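Hey, can you fold this one?
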Amino acid sequence: RMTLIIPSFFYFALPLHFYGQTLGKKLLGLKVVKADTYEYLSIGRAAFRELFAKWISNLTFGIGYIMVAFNADKKGLHDIIAQTRVVKEKR
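Sure. Predicted structure:
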């Protein structure tokens, strides 16, 4: 829905771009980075991952998220599509 795009952009995409994590990922000590270079995401890639790739994961009735448990790289469908990975934050 269009009404969810703007809040999702501000809560998910912007923090991923600037900090590599949302509040929930910060609490868990996780960051989202580019799969190949481990750099923070560009605003375009962050928005693509959160607004499009996760939408695809949702369309699969959650299987896109469940893939994390069975994938050797621990990537969900949205991470594969957006070429990202979730890593533990160095403390």
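The radius of gyration is 12 Å. Let me know if you want another pass with a different chain boundary.
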